[in-house]
Fold:
Amino acid sequence: MSEERKKVLKMLDEGKIDVEEANELLSSLEETEQGRGEPENESKTVDKASFLKILVIEDGKEEVNITLPTGLVKFLENLVPEKARAKLTEKGIDLGNVIDKIEKGSFDGKLVDIEDGNSRIEIKLGK
Structure:
């Protein structure tokens, strides 16, 4: 079982997502995994990032460290803690807009890098 699948099941177990959301996540994961193995999709995946990483550090302590396949980015708003969303909004960053651009393939590399005193939020795409 892949690490991503384990994370989805853990989120379900912890009540962070419901059964329907878990099913959608697992289906998306399956599509992503199948797409990686098919040679005809190779050219499509070369230009697109394969994962999204969110890192939140508060007072020098890592508070959030999320890595998920870009195929699951539509669930990002449910996974980002309220404190991190508030910090993004405070800095004029619309998380919904970032998600839309990721889904459309408009971004590559570091999307958000906010440093505010002892706090830092970083959102980036990788291959």
In short: The beta strands are 51-58, 61-69, 110-116, 119-126. The chain has one domain: 3-126. The first strand starts at residue 51 and ends at 58.
